[in-house]
């Protein structure tokens, strides 16, 4: 019996971790790791499956016989729109570990804004004993935009922490115990929101979505005084110049950002120095390589047994 063709891997993050895990992953078929100089020039025409994160622009020309594409993360905007993208299934990475990491980050950021952590940090550095009286979580409404796997898990964990939580998605989702809104109800959703959490995928409709006009529609008479913007979805969904001006003008009281229009964030970007803004380097929910490769192995096995793939992207919707 012939050996199945290797899995093509073109991942632009943590090359050392990827190489280490690939030593034991895909044991029945092996892999071609384009981050490895020894593999860079290999013939890719035999490859039937590709695991990708921001792949080389000519990849689909070099690998014309792919049957399934697997994204190296929850997002697929780095693949959709590429030249030569074949009409084959694209599968998102959905994993308990990635989902849990994202929810941890979202809950942490909401709690830091609730409890005035930025002010506490300043007082600590000054050696000042300055107590703050913060509202309870139940007095604050967190509006989560994007109610897929990540968004629904974040909603559930924010509820456990006591926040009043509402949700928004392009088409309305039914979630037990959560009031949800759809595209037609965007303004009503924003008017109720004290902390806006962005977990939207990047599509033509969501590019530049979080802008000054949207920020002005957020609730202004809530327990926090001024609304807060948190984004761990996609950097190009936000207009960073508008975030800067909204913070400086008092339209926003603070922000937490894990994603940016251009990454890494330039050292002279004004976001670094803004008051009550927390910056993390796109690591809210990094893909853990062992879990990622197990996910791909599981989906390949399903596909080759004739079973439906899970987490297939709707190309028309963009996610």
TrEMBL record:
EC category name: oxidoreductase
Q: Name one GO molecular function term.
A: hydroxypyruvate reductase [NAD(P)H] activity
| Keywords associated with the record | NAD, Oxidoreductase
- The UniProt record lists the EC number as 1.1.1.79, 1.1.1.81
Asked if Acyltransferase is a keyword of the record, the answer is no
Q: Which domain of life is it from?
A: Bacteria
Q: Where is the D-isomer specific 2-hydroxyacid dehydrogenase NAD-binding domain?
A: 108-282
InterPro entries, sorted: D-isomer_DH_NAD-bd (IPR006140), NAD(P)-bd_dom_sf (IPR036291)
Q: Keyword Oxidoreductase: yes or no?
A: yes
Pfam assignment, any one: 2-Hacid_dh_C
Q: Sorted alphabetically, which PANTHER family does this protein's record hold?
A: 2-HACID_DH_C DOMAIN-CONTAINING PROTEIN, D-ISOMER SPECIFIC 2-HYDROXYACID DEHYDROGENASE NAD-BINDING DOMAIN-CONTAINING PROTEIN
Question: What is the name of this protein?
Answer: Glyoxylate/hydroxypyruvate reductase A
Q: Which organism is it from?
A: Rhizobium phaseoli
